[in-house]
Amino acid sequence: MVKKTPLSQIYFVLSFLSLLLFSSLYLISSKRNYEISTSYSNLENEGSKAFGTIKEYNLTETQGTKNYIYTYSVSDESGRLSEVVEYVDPVIHKKLRIGDSIIVIRKTIILLGQKILISRIIGNTGRIPVNGMIEIFASFGMGVSLFLGIISFILYKKKI
Hints:
Number of helices: 4
Radius of gyration: 23 Å
Structural class: alpha+beta
Strand content: 25-35%
Largest sheet: 5 strands, antiparallel
Shape: elongated
Helix content: 40-55%
Order of helices and strands: HHEEEHEEH
Strand order of the largest sheet: 3-2-1-4-5
């Protein structure tokens, strides 16, 4: 006679593994977003000024608001050229053209073991780029995992 694994145990193991996966993804993404936000807030005090060159401009519209997105190249402290993408407010947008030289504040940070150059155009009040979608996805995954755990508990009580 072959013993069968109860369905509730399979659900419980799946819910535990997925909860572990999604909670670690949520912790990593929220830690990364927090470090990026604090680095951008301290950029004016700790960063150095440099010149950058505007390479590209994109306009997106979400929920009736226009987002001006500029890509520019700037060198880091060691002289290596990097491209930075930044949201720009409408006042600064009116002054910028592709190919213009701009003054930026830059700083190299270490984020999750990688060196990343962050910079900001002087006077810009546009929003800071963070990955909020990853946090939302991870929190939704944790909710589904908890739901699966509750289902496994109900099945265990009914002895299915």
